[in-house]
Amino acid sequence: MNEPVDQREHGEEPKAPPGRRRALVAGSVGNFIEWYEFGVYGYFATTIAAQFFSPEGTGDLESLVKTYASFALAFFFRPVGAAVFGRLGDRIGRRPVLILVVLLMSGATTLIGLLPTYATVGAAAPWLLTAVRIVQGLSAGGEFGGAVAVMTEFAPPGRRGLYGAWQSFTVALGLLGGAGAAALLATVLSAGQLDDWGWRIPFLFSLPLGLIALWLRLRLEETPSFRRTAAGRPPGEDAARAPVDRAGPRATARAIALGAGRLMGWSAAGYTFLVVLPGYLQVALDASFQQALLAAVVSNLGFAAVILPAGVLSDRIGRRPVMVAGMVLVVLLAFPLMSLLQDGSAPTWAKGLGVCAAGAAVGLAAGPGPAMLAEMFPTDVRYIGLGLAYALSNAIFSGSAGLIITELIEHTGNADIPAYYVAATCLVSIGALLTLRGDAHRRPLREADHEAPPTRSEA
After folding, report:
1. Which residues contact 450 (CB under 8 A, 6 or more apart)?
2. What count of other Cβ atoms lies within 10 Å of the Cβ of residue 451?
3. 0.85 cut: is pTM over it?
């Protein structure tokens, strides 16, 4: 049986489905809000620790561990959100579910900026914050699968890597937006003003961002792939059960586990270098808040600069070589970077170059990653499948990164813990990525489960 191939291989210019630009923007904007908020939470981790987890109002290491525990808890609700909203998205469509999750996400983020602190309501403060973080985790779990499904299902042949890379690019933009907001406030406000009320401003800014995202998603069309799959369901089929039953639960579960393994290094290294780094520099290396934020901005600039080119490159040579190269570079850079940051005599420009290179290495994996996941699942389980793979990987290896690193540093006194963590996870990811078929980027997205994914031996 002849496999469909990319139109570019026959000299034809690919024709994109209508509304693809709108799909890119609408899919990206919710993701931007999500990562803007998670970035702000990470960058203000020491302030939040003092406001919500410390009766004395001091952000010591124990309070920071509790802050990261709340951070991790939100990530562990992501798989629940991915399962619930992914099921809905594969059943009733990508558009209505993406509208719902952006409402939940922007509302919960705004609410953080209004919560009373420990000084006001005592021990209820951390519980209120944790409850809001759970809602954020649920909505964030439903965001990724739908956004990537929309972007890749609207993508013209031969450009899925680029279209999917926009999801990762908005991760960088969101983290940079959060770092920029934190840096601006740290510049214009005194330390007392920032700790008292200034930290609330970035969270409250999510309200206007959410309204913009809602307007864009209300104008979004349903994807052609979903419309074709929905139209092909037998008339008497139970729509609530059809997606998972038709795809085969075991095959879907295996693909989810493999997808999570392929993302493990990206998840761990991305959060360690892009979000946890500021808190690590402040607590373990006694850096100032401004120095920590500068390191975060530089690492995210390196991350952002590489993502889209990596997506384009993966459309030309395949997802596997680009993503494996990124993970190998992270392993090679991890320990030298920690040594450089710990060296008090090292010039600032060298430290900046080091964190920028680390961010760029993560970007090599993040660029092709969304398209790689979309290519692993048929249309009728794509939302739930890729959403769960991403959510599980992030829950275990991203959300727990800050907690694991700070706890191990506290108990061992070893400042190289971040390097051990990212190197170990990236090595596992390299093994999982080597099972990826080399020509998957040239094949059309599967629209039914009988179009079985090729095995590594067929490559």
Report:
1. none
2. 15
3. no
